[in-house]
Automatic annotation (TrEMBL):
<keyword id="KW-0121">Carboxypeptidase</keyword>
<dbReference type="GO" id="GO:0008658">
    <property type="term" value="F:penicillin binding"/>
</dbReference>
<dbReference type="GO" id="GO:0006508">
    <property type="term" value="P:proteolysis"/>
</dbReference>
<keyword id="KW-0645">Protease</keyword>
<dbReference type="InterPro" id="IPR036950">
    <property type="entry name" value="PBP_transglycosylase"/>
</dbReference>
<keyword id="KW-0511">Multifunctional enzyme</keyword>
<comment type="pathway">
    <text>Cell wall biogenesis; peptidoglycan biosynthesis.</text>
</comment>
<dbReference type="InterPro" id="IPR023346">
    <property type="entry name" value="Lysozyme-like_dom_sf"/>
</dbReference>
<dbReference type="InterPro" id="IPR009647">
    <property type="entry name" value="PBP_C"/>
</dbReference>
<keyword id="KW-0472">Membrane</keyword>
<comment type="similarity">
    <text>In the C-terminal section; belongs to the transpeptidase family.</text>
</comment>
<dbReference type="GO" id="GO:0030288">
    <property type="term" value="C:outer membrane-bounded periplasmic space"/>
</dbReference>
<comment type="similarity">
    <text>In the N-terminal section; belongs to the glycosyltransferase 51 family.</text>
</comment>
<feature type="domain" description="Penicillin-binding protein transpeptidase">
    <location>
        <begin position="278"/>
        <end position="508"/>
    </location>
</feature>
<feature type="domain" description="Glycosyl transferase family 51">
    <location>
        <begin position="57"/>
        <end position="218"/>
    </location>
</feature>
<dbReference type="InterPro" id="IPR050396">
    <property type="entry name" value="Glycosyltr_51/Transpeptidase"/>
</dbReference>
<keyword id="KW-0378">Hydrolase</keyword>
Length: 715
């Protein structure tokens, strides 16, 4: 008897140990498929700032799988599935042995499969590790996985996972997507009959199609608003799309639709000019919140690459980049009263760069304000050459131009030759109306409450005075007149700053527009790289930007703030110096409060005296006045020291000559030398032709007791 008892105890102990080991295996054995399944994406419901549905994000192959916590699923919906699919769900541990016996008996009796024994847990196991083969081994694996699920998850977690992933056909997975797909309802709006209809349809979706068996079924038309914007949200770091069930964005569909209509109309009007596409970005100036994002004129227009996102595409922006350069110039010693040379100039050495204005004219001395507002090219390149390319690129990096971090564009970057995106430009342009504070554009509304304190904690990339001066210049209608006249394109019933740009023979035309309330960026052109036919001009995107602002603000808006450390004084319109009694034209301009500006010396009773650097420009046309060269330092203005030239054997030697121009000097006669040998003497203006021969040459000029020299290389 004692031996039998000991044997029984050993058997029980062995069974206990085996059961414990089995439970440990069920609970802790590697189950990577479950880990991946619990991380798989869901169809995020994306709303605008007013609660309007933008999209229910489709997953791979167009499947929609919305997630709803079990606590928010109506009780009768869950009951419909447990009663129809697994009546003993809450009492078994993954396998319903009674159901297996019943199914085996019924199927044997009928000699065909008329009943199944899969529990909800087993069906979930099949979703986690799908296999089309229904062999005994596959079913045994599903049963084992069901036991593992029961050992690791609660009944609530199992039912929640099942109800949110069960496939219904028609690219709908989960009860929430099924309710929307088949009945055009939110899950909470389903009736009990509709819930039972769905619970039956999962057995055989093709046989029990709700569209055919339910009188209340109504197909849902999934909205497809702002496709480029949604794609952008999906690709940002730590994107909530596919991870969260709902996302509220900063976008406003009413603004979006207005922008889309304006772009479509413009493309329809100018399509014959190959102006076949465009992009628009609208943001709140003070907070940086994205309000509208139009990536192309028509997302479904394959002929014109409509799925390309023009907001993020890199294009040459042309002159629309100049405000950032001029702002840096103000912080590098230049003033609003500074006069910039708009004259023939050469930059560089072996790679000589000779910029031209858009109208192929030279305006001579131009005030800082007019040069920026009228978008003159030569003064911009002059400023960049004075400031330094590295300093400018560093400033652009602080403004969010990541596309330029590895760029080596040369001085032409002053004219927008380096490719950037409308996203980057709009983001950067908004800093001026925000007192120089940089805030990255954002689009996910995570219940943040933006205040003036939040903005104050942004990154100060430009001094407050700098930002306010640039805002004042770009909203100055009179200052734009030299380059654009008094175009109605820039006329708004409230203060607004504009900057436009063209590039690649009008292939890319850009407009930036900003007020203290909103900032708009517009690009137009085509994605195919074809040259636009005719000079369509940047007024087209500027009109769109203006219409968007007027639609948002009506007839009212805040004024731009004035720079506190500057005051307005009357200055000479030509020299930028303090207006004198001989100055024929004067304007009011900002001058530092702490500084006194010099009285104009350009205008005298005897006429106008231009500085020596304007000598070449002065001689281009018959102008009134004179150039005050005598008494200024002797200087060879062309060519530049270190310039490289190439001798052409196909051209006769007598035609290959270099024109040397000199200004300044104390006398009215100058001597020119090449490698120490006298070439000739000339009276003012000091211009001399030098024959070209290969090799390094030293060109020197002697004027009275002064001399200067340069070295060139002829290859």
């Amino acid at each position: 008897m004692k031996k039998h008892l000991q044997l029984a105890l050993k058997i029980l102990s062995a069974l206990f140990i085996l059961s414990a080991v089995f439970l440990l295996i069920l609970r802790f054995s590697p189950y990577p498929a479950l880990k991946e399944f619990r991380k798989h994406p869901v169809s995020t419901r994306i709303f605008d700032c007013r609660g309007n549905l933008i999209q229910i994000h489709a997953l791979e192959n167009g499947v929609r799988r919305e997630f709803v916590p079990l606590d928010e699923i109506p009780v009768f919906v869950a009951q419909a599935f447990t009663e129809g699919e697994d009546r003993h769900f809450y009492s078994h541990h993954g396998i319903d042995f009674a159901a297996i016996v019943r199914a085996a008996f019924q199927n044997t009796k009928e000699l065909r499969t008329v009943s199944g024994a899969s529990t909800i847990t087993m069906q979930l196991a099949r979703m986690i590790r799908p296999n089309k083969n229904r062999t005994i081994l596959v079913k045994m694996r599903e049963a084992f996985d069901a036991l593992r699920l029961e050992a690791r998850l609660s009944k609530k977690e199992i039912l929640e996972a099942y109800l949110n992933n069960v496939p219904f056909g028609f690219n709908a997975e989960g009860v929430a997507s099924a309710a929307r797909t088949f009945f055009s309802k939110n899950l909470s709006e389903l009736t009990e009959d509709e819930a039972r209809c769905l619970s039956v349809s999962v057995r055989r979706p093709a046989l029990y199609n709700p569209f055919e068996v339910s009188e209340t079924a109504r197909a849902f038309s999934y909205p497809f608003e702002m496709p480029h914007f949604v794609r952008y949200l999906s690709n940002i770091p730590d994107s909530p799309i596919g991870r969260l069930s709902e996302v509220r964005t900063t976008a406003d569909l009413s603004i979006q639709h207005h922008a889309e209509d304006l772009l479509s109309s413009a493309v329809a009007q100018y399509g014959e000019n190959r102006l076949s596409n465009g992009a628009i970005l609208v943001c709140d100036t003070q907070t940086g919140a994205i309000l509208a994002w139009v990536g192309s004129a028509d997302f479904f227009d394959e002929a014109h690459n409509g799925q390309v996102d023009g907001v993020l595409s890199f294009r040459q922006p042309g002159s629309s980049m100049k405000p950032f350069l001029y702002a840096l110039a103000l912080e590098s010693g230049f003033l609003p009263t500074s006069v910039l040379p708009d004259i023939p100039m050469e930059f560089g050495f072996e790679n000589l760069y000779v910029p031209q204005n858009f109208n192929n004219r030279f305006n001579g001395p131009v005030r800082f304000r007019v040069a920026l507002a009228s978008s003159l090219n030569i003064p911009a390149v002059y400023l960049l050459n004075e400031i330094g390319l590295d300093s400018y690129l560093k400033k652009l990096s602080s403004l969010g131009f990541k596309s330029l971090e590895d760029a080596d564009p040369g001085l032409s970057v002053a004219l927008g030759s380096a490719e950037v995106s409308i996203f980057e430009m709009t983001q950067a342009f908004s800093v001026f109306a925000r007192d120089g504070i940089f805030i990255p554009l954002w689009a996910i509304d995570d219940d943040r409450c933006w205040t003036e304190q939040d903005v104050a904690e942004g990154k100060q990339v430009f001094d407050v005075n700098t930002a306010r001066i640039i805002s004042d210049i770009l909203s100055d209608k009179d200052a734009r007149a030299l380059g654009f006249g008094y175009s109605q394109t820039f006329q708004t019933p409230f203060p607004a700053m504009f900057k436009t740009g063209t590039a690649n023979q009008y292939q890319n035309i850009t407009a930036l527009c900003s007020t203290p309330h909103y900032t708009v960026g517009v690009w137009m052109g085509n994605f195919s790289g074809e040259t636009v036919i005719g000079k369509t001009g940047s007024s087209i995107p500027a009109k769109i930007a203006r219409e968007i602002l007027v639609g948002l603000q009506g007839n009212s808006g805040k004024d731009f703030k004035k720079p506190a450390q500057f005051k307005k004084e009357r200055v000479c319109a030509l020299s930028g110096l303090k207006a004198g009694e001989n100055c024929p034209d004067t304007v009011k301009e900002f001058v530092p409060v702490s500084e006194k500006i010099e009285k104009c010396s350009w205008h005298t009773q005897n006429g106008t005296n231009y500085p020596a650097q304007y000598a070449t420009w002065f001689r281009l046309k018959n102008r009134s006045g004179q150039v005050s060269e005598k008494g200024t330092p002797l200087k060879i203005v062309s060519p530049r020291n270190g310039s490289v030239f190439y001798y052409d054997d196909s051209v006769p030697p007598f035609r290959q000559k270099l024109v040397v121009e000199v200004t300044g000097g104390s006398e009215d006669e100058a001597e020119f030398f090449v490698d120490g040998k006298l070439l000739g003497k000339t009276a003012r203006p000091f211009v001399q032709q030098v024959p070209l021969t290969r090799g390094r040459k030293k060109i020197s000029v002697q004027c009275g007791n002064e001399s200067t020299e340069i070295e060139i290389n002829v290859k």
